[in-house]
């Protein structure tokens, strides 16, 4: 007999599938073993040349054409809807499909342009995909919970059900963006793999034997497949950067208080020791800049009480750009191993490739010996489980569905003891002290950087692996340390796994048993072809500077390849 | 028999007193009944004309002379040390006296000036007093706790005892300020009256029958007496603004994340739902501007992980200044009664005087009907007691001293149940929703303000009373609502109580029993002469704008008097 929750999940799964126009249904879907990589030519076989041209243009290129009337919003939207529909069939990456509403709004935009000869805003006609935490009128927000289907965040008959829109959604519409789909997440959002009982497991388009990452995994898979040019995820422990990295994308984790989270669904909402932040993932770094600048042009601090009044600072961005264009050298710290989990061979090779490329370009690679990260990671584990899983288990209980193994390994299968006010306060104090120690360490690097300034950015793995094999994502230390510090992180794609080069490290010396297990998941045959990306980390609220550096690093890497 | 804690308190009390040079000891101290007001001519009788001239000059005037060599740092410092010594004898407002260290550092500054002909910084030679939460090398930080005497925040034999300095102290030294005393606080900091078992009860210099306010009460009393030109307090529920108001001063409560709290002692440290903030109190608004701008010139975001990178914005300050100098009108909302506690007659008169003065100057007085404040106040009570008093009772237990009645009325005499992580999270969510509702209300006032902009500032009482009679301070609603919202508040002195004008309101209709009790504490004979001040409230992180408005309002009031 099928459990009630399974029946509900199946109905929702079928409803999603049935939102895809008949003519876009694939005649057959190859197994992941027979077709690991479904990007590039494999994807293109289903598309017209024009659709390929449109969907393989980045957000900057698209808006250059849509804001000048060269491309119509309808044509662009339709091309991305088509490619997104194919993505979902191959990868299981969508939670909500609303192509009709998207085409209607694109049509309105075209009418507006025809009438006024002016774009609606800087994002006129740009399709933007959204992680399934954003509330969009007319559709559900399930966040992967069966109990949230047909409800507002689990509440039955709520008057804001399918009527409320998150602030970011309102702003995107004002800027001219076209919204057309919401993407998959691991239920609870607390995993680097994207799996839930509604849509199952979202695959990595470049290598379907691996995860697309999480928790903004559907975003990563969809944009990686070019079913979207740019989209938004959220990040409390890597959830923007992991899927950006695993799908060969650029992704920005801004500091908290920069972009508006107001009116979004969340897990453990109200835990305010480490805040989840919202940020973009895209195919180019310039797209991230366009998007961040556009959102900030809307003065979000007037509508989100947690956003600081810090407008986009051209002066910061331009200062870094002109430093670089004048041939001045930057200084980069490098974290090759954080002492908690060792990187797999392809990640180590990416680190060496990027640092040697930057050194060849005349930049300094500065020793980086900060306070031990393990202290921050230990505190982070406590923070993520302050409520003993009360919030997530309440959400599971709505339908009776079981948590995935990825989640039960962190939160168990029922709630446990909660932290008290005193315990939380003590952790907040310990956190602030560690942040202070780290910031003073960073200040101190001006003495050794060779530039007279503290280190400009730290180069760091995103994860120990290029992407995780299903069920093996356990180590978040390369990510969550920066959430703990609330620093700015930008992911940059560096290379791909090459089984002919990236051999297993026969002499590997594990730090501990967990490290041994993690390293043992590396298999060149399985990982071959997967994207390998790294993150560039800057200090708190340094979005403009870090985006300028990321653009530069992307261009230097492109030349070096 | 004297209890151990009493003996320790007495020894400390005597040690403080013995730090006053013999020649500054007053021959006799009149009782508060025989000499209510010890400011003005009463204070001047103990001082030379030159000392009066120096100590009755504001921080802007002092630095104009000390940074140009017209006045020596030593002479200025000595004058304020003298007047502070008198203040302590009349008011009991000092916790730590370090005149010798101050004079030594002033001497160094004079030497520096003599040698370089340049000031050390914008605050060269300016005496600055500090609330006893600031750690200063060489002296204790007791925060009024007997158990903290001779310790570092209660820890015995701590290596940072008397060696650690709070970040703000370091920055003040770099800017050229002279530090010379630390001022009294209510133990726990959680009261609008300043009382502890070490120094007793700090009196209001303008009317010693009343409290000087709290928790930065020693600052208020000292600066009100002109024993300091400017000093720093902290504010989690009114603790800068209350003593500023009760002593006829200007005081700034900035939003959190603007000025650095790093390295200071605190109560319930790590409670991060409503953060305590640090800010200046001074005799003029221009002094607050000088100080805020000076501190921000030190880039505190590089040394305090909780400070946002928002430099002093001349553009904001100048925009408001030029709006005003061009004769453009502003729009002010007014809160005459928050529906929780009704103001006493002098406060109501001050509200009418200020609003009619502003209306006469051509400004709009806009109806102000925000979301009911009671919802924020109810949540605030929960926030202040998240830990059930665990932190403050642990501090009392170090010595066995009893809490004052002002404190036991809030925290009892022993710890009670703590809030859980889920309860705290739920309050954080409720808080954010209320902040959102309030901000959208404020946005909406552009439709009725008559300026096309939302209301520029809200005029609001500081407390229901001009100052409280000892033991009667119970209502914090006019204050803590702005901490809850994290808005910018500046206190402006408006008038003084006049028993000939401010009669008891015979037809007073109380809101409830607490309101009746509060109103019943008003007695024109007792309150006569007390300062009556109001606060000007702006939105989050609007320090520059609000300081410009406060300067203007101060000047308009001066003309109207």
From TrEMBL, chains A, B:
Amidase domain: residues covered: 75-547
Q: Which residues bind substrate?
A: 189, 215, 236-239
Give the top-rank taxon of the lineage listed in the UniProt record for this protein.
Eukaryota
| Catalytic activity as recorded in UniProt | a monocarboxylic acid amide + H2O = a monocarboxylate + NH4(+)
Q: What class of enzyme is it?
A: hydrolase
Q: Which residues form the active site?
A: 131, 215, 239
Give a Pfam family name.
Amidase
Single GO MF descriptor: amidase activity
Q: Does the keyword Hydrolase apply?
A: yes
Give the UniProt keywords, A-Z. Hydrolase
Enzyme Commission no: 3.5.1.4
Assigned protein family:
Belongs to the amidase family.
**Name used for this protein in its record:** amidase
């Amino acid at each position: 007999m099928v459990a009630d929750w399974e029946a509900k999940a199946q109905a929702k799964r079928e409803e999603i599938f049935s939102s895809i126009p008949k003519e876009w249904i694939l005649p057959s879907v190859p197994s992941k073993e027979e077709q690991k990589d479904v990007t590039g030519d494999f994807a293109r076989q289903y598309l017209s040349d024009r659709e390929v041209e449109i969907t393989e243009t980045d957000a900057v290129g698209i808006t250059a054409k849509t804001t000048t009337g060269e491309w119509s919003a309808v044509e662009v939207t339709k091309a991305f809807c088509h490619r997104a529909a194919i993505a979902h069939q191959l990868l299981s990456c969508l939670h909500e499909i609303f192509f009709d509403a998207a085409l209607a709004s694109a049509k309105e935009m075209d009418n507006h342009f025809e009438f006024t000869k002016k774009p609606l805003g800087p994002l006129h006609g740009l399709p933007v995909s959204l992680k399934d935490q954003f509330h969009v009128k007319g559709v559900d927000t399930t966040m992967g919970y069966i109990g949230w289907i047909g409800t507002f965040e689990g509440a039955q008959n709520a008057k804001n059900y399918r009527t409320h829109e998150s602030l970011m959604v309102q702003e995107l519409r004002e800027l001219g963006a076209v919204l057309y789909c919401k993407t998959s997440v691991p239920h609870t959002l607390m995993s680097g793999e994207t799996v839930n009982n509604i849509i199952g497991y979202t695959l990595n388009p470049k290598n379907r034997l691996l995860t697309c990452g999480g928790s903004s995994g559907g975003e990563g898979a969809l944009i990686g497949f070019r079913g979207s040019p740019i989209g938004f995820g959220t990040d409390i422990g890597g959830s923007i950067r992991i899927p950006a990295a695993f799908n060969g994308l650029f992704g920005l984790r801004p500091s908290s208080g920069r972009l508006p989270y107001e009116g979004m669904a969340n897990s453990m909402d109200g835990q305010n020791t480490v805040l989840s932040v919202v940020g973009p993932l895209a195919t180019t770094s310039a797209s991230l800049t366009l998007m961040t600048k556009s959102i900030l042009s809307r003065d979000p601090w007037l509508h989100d009480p947690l956003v600081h009044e810090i407008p986009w600072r051209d002066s910061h961005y331009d200062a870094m750009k002109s430093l670089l264009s004048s041939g001045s050298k930057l200084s980069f710290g490098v974290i090759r191993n954080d002492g908690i989990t060792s990187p797999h061979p392809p990640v180590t090779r990416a680190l060496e490739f990027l640092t040697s490329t930057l050194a060849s370009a005349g930049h300094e690679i500065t020793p980086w010996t900060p306070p031990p990260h393990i202290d921050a990671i230990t505190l982070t584990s406590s923070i993520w489980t302050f409520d003993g899983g009360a919030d997530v288990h309440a959400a599971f209980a709505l339908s009776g569905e079981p948590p995935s193994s990825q989640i039960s390994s962190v939160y168990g299968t029922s709630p446990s003891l909660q932290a008290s006010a005193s315990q939380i306060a003590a952790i907040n104090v310990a956190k602030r002290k560690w942040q202070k120690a780290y910031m003073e360490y960073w200040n101190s690097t001006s003495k050794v950087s060779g530039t007279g300034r503290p280190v400009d950015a730290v180069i760091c793995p995103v994860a120990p692996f290029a992407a995780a094999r299903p069920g093996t994502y356990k180590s978040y230390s390369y990510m969550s340390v920066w959430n703990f510090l609330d620093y700015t992180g930008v992911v940059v794609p560096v290379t791909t796994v090459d089984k002919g080069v990236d051999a297993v490290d026969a002499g590997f010396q594990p730090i501990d048993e967990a490290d041994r297990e993690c390293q043992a998941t590396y298999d060149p045959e399985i990982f071959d072809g997967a994207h390998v990306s790294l993150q560039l980390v800057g200090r708190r609220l340094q979005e403009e500077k870090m985006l300028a550096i990321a653009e530069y690093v992307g261009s230097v890497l492109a030349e070096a390849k």
